[in-house]
Specification:
about 60 residues, globular
Length: about 60
Amino acid sequence: MSTFSIRPQVTAPAGSKRLLAITERAYSFIPNLFGVFAESPSALKAYLKIGKMFDESSLSATER
């Protein structure tokens, strides 16, 4: 079984640092899942984009 490390902003790859900073401003902390996705800047960017797409959907907050 593989283990995933949670990357804090200071040790995250360069491509993830800005995204983690944006996340920290929005949530006042960096959720662990975002720290795991930070290992791959593309994965983190995709996850954030999917979240934004759900926010823009016609689903209610409860449905999301």
